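FORM 7B: Structural annotation worksheet

SECTION A. Query
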Amino acid sequence: MANVATHKEPLVRIAKRDSIPFWKSTIVRLISIVLALIVCGGIIYLLVKVNPLEVYKSMVEGAFGSFSKDYKFFNRRTWITIRDTMMLLCIAVGLAPAFKMRFWNIGAEGQILVGGIATAACMIYLKDLPPVVLFICMVVTSLLAGAIWSFLPALFKAKWNTNETLFTLMMNYVAIQLTSFFVALWENPYGSNTVGVINPTGHEGWFPSVFGQDYLLNVIVVMIVTVGMFIYLKYSKQGYEIAVVGDSENTARYAGINVKKVIIRTMLISGAICGLSGFVAVSGASHTISISTAGGKGFTAIIVAWLAKFNTFTMILISMLLVFLDKGAIEIASKYDLNDYVASMITGIILFFILGSEFFINYRMIFRHKNKEVQ
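SECTION B. Predicted structure
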């Protein structure tokens, strides 16, 4: 009689999904956000004994202003939220081509800073130029600065297959020190260790108001870049080459694609747009330069690009969500006398649930039904 061995399946197995309908993935993400809000609500209630709904109302007010009788949605606080959303979106759009190529560009912070340095230099040294010429100079120099900053890691990756994650990360620290040098060079007043507001009187190099709104031009510039990048990645030959290289470099070589050329070209574009983000930050928002100009957005934009699956239109919604969470968390920390760590904790919990939802979108869990007998 043959020996029969009983093989027991694991209680749970994880298998990758082939695909999932868009409506299902949307429902999963919405459920994750609801669960995150419930968990955060419980934590907040334990800390301050306040109805979580009141807390969430405060979060909305922190991002879009308080709801008074004469409330207008497009108030100053709303425009600041839109401004910060556009900044984050621009960086995420810049990261999209590199990440789609599976080139892990962690150097957006540095590329933003060098773009901001180039913009500030134009505002300081070329402020007597006609406004249109000055803006052209700022755009061109910020694009070039970001592209140059990304060229080195791209070259080393293409020629010697170096680790782009470490290379681009180290470039951030170099950019921070470079920014500190220029802050010391341009500090105003002398000895203040800060550049201060550049051209506060004549506003040379500042984004002009459009239809009476200070930050509408930010929206126009970033949306042009967003639409352009979507078309570039989805419908151009170079976008197709980026996708092929990202899937498999060997396949790309077999198809006759020059992988080294694609890597360098794509990183130049990625760095240039991140450099343009520095232009938007300095000329369109803060009107100064400091080591906090990037403000960690280069790392937050990685989450935006990844969650959006490199779709630049989806990035708009995710950028708005993350900025809303940040503004709302700061508001409730201030209103209920909580420290900044609590605000960061709330944001982190919500992000954890959102990122966790991607697991259930990409994978399925198979539970054991019965034992199998293996002859």
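SECTION C. Observations
The two ends are 12 Å apart (CA to CA). Residues 131-160 form the longest helix (30 residues).

SECTION D. Sign-off
Analyst initials: ____
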